[in-house]
Each structure stands twice: as structure tokens, then as C-alpha cells.
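Field log, afternoon session.

UNIT: design team B
ACTIVITY: writing a sequence onto a fixed backbone
BACKBONE:
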């Protein structure tokens, strides 16, 4: 193994360096993915009550809502929301966190109902008339 690495380092140092960098990035992003996957699949982290420290992205991941739905509920533009916290957003909107949470929960119900209708044939709930 060492002999092969020495050979590649002598003959192809750039290719070996690129391969090593790709391997490090693969491990880094793989660990990050698994960490977030495990975190948000824990029932304790789903549909959490809103807290001032949360970001719109965290709320979207907790409630399993796409970015555009969260941004509509929180009255954010595409460029906003990266550094804002839910507490700041509620203050800017002039509502309490509990009111914002109620809006998020209502949006989740609407989103889920829309998703169920799209899954069944002809957009009808319950399937065919047999």
C-alpha cells in the first residue's frame, strides 16, 4: 500500500492530492448529512414550538416545509432570512411567537392537504369511485 502511494505521489501528485481532497470532503459532508438526518428524525425535534433563536431554515426542517412556504408565512424575501431569527421576524411582523407558530402550523396543514390531493388520481382524495 505504501509502495503504491509513493508511486502515485511521485508520478501523479496533483491527481493524488485532488483524490485526497475529494475523500476528505466526502467524509465531511457525509457526516454532516447523517448528523442532520438523525437529528430531524428524532420525534423530539419535529414540529417544535417556536423559540426566538430558531432560524427560518430550522423551522422548515422541523416542520418539513419547503423554503417558499416558510418564507411566505414569515413574509420574507429570497434575500432575507439567512441571518434572521424567528424572534426578530415576529417582532418585525408585530406578532407574538405563538401567533407565528400558529401560522406555521396552519401552513403545514395546508401544505400536507395539498400534497395528499396531488398524490391521488385526478387530484381527488380517496382515489377512484369503485
Amino acid at each position: 500500500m505504501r509502495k503504491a502511494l509513493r508511486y502515485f505521489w511521485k508520478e501523479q501528485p496533483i491527481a493524488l492530492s485532488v483524490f485526497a481532497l475529494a475523500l476528505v470532503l466526502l467524509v465531511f459532508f457525509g457526516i454532516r448529512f447523517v448528523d442532520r438526518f438523525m437529528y430531524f428524525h428524532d420525534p423530539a425535534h419535529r414540529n417544535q414550538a417556536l423559540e426566538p433563536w430558531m432560524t427560518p431554515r430550522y423551522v422548515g426542517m422541523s416542520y418539513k416545509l419547503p423554503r417558499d412556504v416558510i418564507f411566505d408565512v414569515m413574509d420574507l424575501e429570497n434575500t432575507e432570512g439567512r441571518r434572521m431569527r424567528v424572534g426578530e421576524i415576529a417582532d418585525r411582523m408585530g406578532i407574538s411567537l405563538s401567533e407565528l407558530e400558529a401560522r406555521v402550523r396552519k401552513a403545514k396543514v395546508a401544505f400536507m392537504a395539498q400534497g395528499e390531493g396531488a398524490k391521488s388520481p385526478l387530484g381527488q382524495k380517496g382515489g377512484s369511485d369503485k
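LOG NOTE: The two ends are 66 Å apart (CA to CA).
NEXT ACTIVITY: expression trials, pending approval
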